[in-house]
Amino acid sequence: MRALRPDHVELPLPRRYSSKHRGFVEGMARHADAVAAGRASYADPVTGLTVFTAKFLADRAYCCDSGCRHCPYAPLR
Asked: Phi then psi for 24, rounded to 5 degrees?
């Protein structure tokens, strides 16, 4: 099993969701609110699509290799 990144709740992998991404600040605020409230997901502020939180993905205990925005696992490369 792949290791969890130590900062997985606070910081997404930059190649998946960088600070240059439109809506990043609001998206990260929504992520933090969802984690604090114990919700599994939040709505992306730009697209309205559902995004899983890093906590939900870590609690699931496996990586699906789908390129999740808040994947808590260390990248393979």
From this structure: -55, -50
Q: What is the pLDDT of residues 24-75, one digit of tens each?
A: 999 999 999 999 999 999 999 999 999 999 999 999 999 998 999 999 998 7
Whether 71 is covered by a domain: the verdict is no
Q: Which residues contact 46 (CB under 8 A, 6 or more apart)?
A: 22, 23, 27
18/36 Cα distance (integer angstroms): 21
Q: Which pTM does this prediction carry?
A: 0.92
CA-CA distance, 24 to 44, in Å (whole number)?
9
Both tokens of 68, joined, read 């999740």
Which candidate, 59, 61, 54, places its Cα nearest to that of 28?
Answer: 54
Q: Which two tokens stand for residue 2?
A: 């792949």
Residue 16 in any domain: the answer is yes
